[in-house]
């Protein structure tokens, strides 16, 4: 019987609803704003009874059935408050039968009801045994009481069963309890889990130790399957089941019987129904449980029935007359011809949604959540194709059932309802295979998430939202496949463990799936696209804000592409300036109105009618319209419509309306204007999709849960059903991930401008020329000496005396110095000059769809070439070149950093040689337009071949020889040059416009990692769906190695500056993006300082730490106070857990207090605050869940702050929420503990890891800098030392914060190469220059580490120069006004001392600019 398996009545205890088909029905969970979920029985009845027919007289209706709501009762943010007692079954009447006790541990709860039913059936009907049973959800074992109960239960159990135990720390707990009792247990059955848990298997003589032996036929089979198709362990097990008879004939008879029992047990377990589990328990009991075996001596054994199994993969539908269909042909024969007509679905024109289900839920009849979504989709007129797989590789069923016989795709959108990665589930994933399968399908791929470790009430009450383990397994991993939209759609009923649909989430999921399907099927000419741009800080001069992106030029490119593909863009100008003018009204603001172009005025009646949550905003903002995005009567939508394209300006956060809001510990709701904007997009403009343009807006940072939004979370409410594509900078994967998870956005990465060497200018250039002259005249006692005097004098003029230990200018004479002394001075100045010159800075702004030129490609490749990549067995170019003269590159770097003249000269020579080699490589593929040809032609290859035959060198080798390294080894160069050639191809590929269009056309966009393209060229090409990394993979071994070197340099520098004494406590700031780019370097630094090391589990995941003995550490344990960014908290909460456990481990170590400052301080704090040692050792802090930043940056950018005290109070209030591994479900406000820890800090510390984002490029760095906060809290009011680690190059360095600020100012704000590059982009460029000036002011406010000359020189460049002044004024008068204001503010707040003449000029200039803007 084609496509049919066992009939429904044989397996599932449910009415056959197919008999009612004539009534034209299908049921669904109805939409209801205030009805989060149905109880299990009500959901089942609603979903499976015929009472909810929705077709009457051919018109579809949706039920208004009221639903029961369960109020949350869990403690705020707690996880897994469920209790194993709800899974404990004790026989009521033993009747003289032997009792077998079963203890089981499972990842998810769907087996609970089947196991309960199976045990009750045995107890009621068996004459030979009674069963006591208790089950634990894996996550419950974190609870001390639950773990103690588990120990007691296993101690008197007969059989232990475990399944999907893939969380390392909990796997260890299971092993800790079961392993010592393994011999006394009658049987241990462990189905796919961590290897150490699997090794405990015991069924008679069959164990997993046998399974691992080289002569084992079973082991050979598993290894062969792994080699053949990369099968996971579970997939191999499933294939083994199918070939079991062939395998067992090779085993001795006794072992064959035991192996057969284990495999039969696995089959029964996979079957999952009460009947299957009953057979499993009876089979194991009568053959292996001693009391039952004895009782049955002389009695007839039960004959083991064959497991009742569904096919390994099939299509399932809840009301099909056959339980499953094994071909899509059979399914659609029934579905299109019988079901759809009765349900009022037009099979020819309906959208089709593919659903991926977990077979265990179907086996155990725990499928109500699936039924609910199927119902909702069909109630919207959609067809569904619900498929499942018996294992955890869903790629096979996708390829088999989502295509028709002709190979055409039959689905418009796919929703994975398992929450797992497409290939491999929670154990081991094959992301490349998954992405390949999904790209072939080429449909939007959503991965919705059922709650596993939390009940509905716990999730609803939790500020963090989804459980951290689930975030790692069921959000992070699917994202690497290319999945979008991790919407929670089902909860778990605490008492029964059954899944229940969350009605409003199911509705949202159905709506969004339909919208994504419409993008694929709707004619392009009819599709409406809303391009959303940002303005931050809110000001007319800042419209079109995005990191390193030329926004209006990029919009021009997108409009051109939309037009070319058939979208209606009306009369949109394809000119950057004209587009900008249409949105701004007038970019130069020559008219009197400060307003942008008004696209729509929404009256309050319309606003309240269309915005269901509008009343909730009144608590923070009063009644609409308010004073933000308002004309006093209406809410105002800014932007401009062209045909079916709307270019709108996203409103601001709203802090500028009331600066005191910056002080709130938790972020408030969005204001009415913000809500009105998204209401307009969805319900008035009726956008089919919104394209958020650039890094980044405010939507994804609105208040709500971290991950796993509820209907009360503002990002969810705002975006509602709108598909969102989000253009995000490739170097910012952390915030892009927040956008993916909190605003349901599919991201499209864009390239940041190529990083070039900063170069030298003015006095710095003159200094280098003097040094060059000195090198040629070093031995000349006359002229050489005079040049040294000039070098010292010019170095003072350039303010290098703050960075280099120069002799006194008024008394020094090089004549009286030794040759060695002169070399030392010149070497130090030369080293500093080279640091400035070689500093990388992105030049200009990027335009979407414009790949780099050959010159820009060279700049990027030079930086890629300098790094060693041991994981790929690649040496960097500098190392290969240095080895040709018998030197080790790190030794040269050390000499360079110390200012040893010979090493500084050699370092520059090697750098130039590496650059020449890279240029030679690129020039091979450069055309006459200065662009890179993608592929070298065959003649180049042939030429190279014959050239090598004749002894000719490769062009790059010749370039290195010409640069002064004649002995360089060409064979040793080959690997790195081959790698650079690959990178060159990646750099010049361009899919940014293509990526945007793929999303807008409802296609699958290939995933790609985000990060620093220099560290990780896999980030390229851009134009792909950016993801972060598997959070359990960091810190990597390489990151730990680098971090230990940085910590060593830091502590050496601090000890040198402090008479050999180590600091006792260091305040750390951790960033999400930085840890993604470096694979956890700064996280590893925290662990290294404390003296703990991360440990990987058998699957390579890092979720454990161990204490490094003091003898091995060789120094005291240094205390830390870790301030995590809100983004780090969202992405790496498991790593926060890791840090907290490691720090507490150090605090509890019984060691001398002068060798363990963590313990020393924790003991002091415990006494001071009257708390336990463990509580006092909390050192990991962040914002409240759903809140981000200290708001210090916002205050400084808006200028609305009273004094530094306000900024410090904001930091303490907003960042003082502690993470506690003992209470992992919450961020708890611990202001007193935070202050107590900070007042002991000696050093503040941050990391710079990427050339693209430095400390004055963004406000984040100073926003979270606690330097002056610590000073205010310390008893002695001493300012702590402020340090920065710079790992942007292979030559990692540790500098003071003031050194870093100077270096940044010299290479960016004061550097003509930088500001002229910015000015070449026009309007946006002026804003970028002003942003650096404002961020420099920020460092003055939070750390006091900005030298006066920085402001003085900046004033000289931008204000004193009349021509420059006019250029800025003409290009962006609003941004220029902000620049003038920043200078005046710096002086007014005491950060810049300057002449009265300068201040008067600035004041006059301010009035002049104001008049210009107001049109006077």
In short:
The protein is of the alpha/beta class. The chain is built from 59 helices and 38 strands.
Main-sheet strand order equals: 35-34-33-32-29-36-37-38
- Separation, N- and C-terminal Cα atoms: 86 Å
Q: Rounded to an integer, what's the Rg over CA atoms?
A: 34 Å
Q: Largest sheet, if any? A: 8 strands, mixed
Number of helices: 59
Query: What percentage of amino acids are in beta strands?
Result: 5-15%
Helix content: 40-55%
Low-confidence sequence ranges: 1-79, 210-219, 225-231, 586-593
Oligomer category:
single chain
Find the count of extended strands (DSSP E, 2+ residues). 38
The computed structural class is alpha/beta
Overall pLDDT, averaged? Answer: 85
Anisotropy-based shape = globular
Give short descriptive properties of this protein.
single chain; 1416 residues; alpha/beta; eight-stranded mixed sheet; seven-stranded mixed sheet; disordered N terminus
Helices, strands, pairings?
Blueprint: H1 8-11, H2 40-48, E1 55-56, E2 59-60, E3 99-106, H3 111-125, E4 130-137, H4 144-155, E5 159-163, H5 168-178, E6 187-190, H6 195-198, E7 202-203, E8 206-207, H7 208-211, H8 217-229, H9 233-242, H10 244-248, H11 253-271, H12 274-288, H13 290-295, E9 313-316, E10 324-325, H14 328-343, E11 352-358, H15 359-363, H16 368-379, E12 383-389, H17 395-401, E13 413-416, H18 431-441, E14 445-447, E15 449-450, H19 456-461, H20 468-481, E16 488-492, E17 499-501, H21 503-521, E18 529-533, H22 551-564, H23 576-584, E19 598-603, H24 604-610, H25 618-621, E20 634-642, E21 645-649, H26 672-684, E22 689-693, H27 714-719, E23 724-729, H28 733-742, E24 745-750, E25 755-757, H29 762-777, H30 783-797, H31 819-838, E26 840-842, H32 854-865, H33 877-883, H34 889-898, H35 901-923, H36 938-949, H37 955-962, H38 970-988, H39 992-1000, E27 1007-1009, E28 1025-1027, H40 1037-1056, E29 1065-1070, H41 1072-1077, H42 1081-1090, E30 1092-1096, E31 1102-1107, H43 1110-1113, E32 1119-1124, H44 1126-1131, H45 1133-1147, H46 1157-1169, H47 1173-1176, E33 1180-1182, ...
Parallel strand pairs: 3-4, 3-5, 5-6, 11-12, 11-13, 13-14, 15-16, 18-21, 18-22, 22-23, 23-24, 27-28, 29-32, 29-36, 32-33, 36-37
Antiparallel strand pairs: 1-2, 7-8, 9-10, 9-12, 16-17, 19-20, 20-21, 25-26, 30-31, 33-34, 34-35, 37-38
Helix pairs in contact: 2-16, 3-12, 8-9, 11-12, 16-21, 18-20, 22-23, 29-30, 29-31, 30-31, 31-35, 32-35, 32-38, 33-35, 34-35, 35-37, 40-42, 42-45, 45-46, 48-55, 53-55, 54-55, 55-58, 56-57, 57-58, 58-59
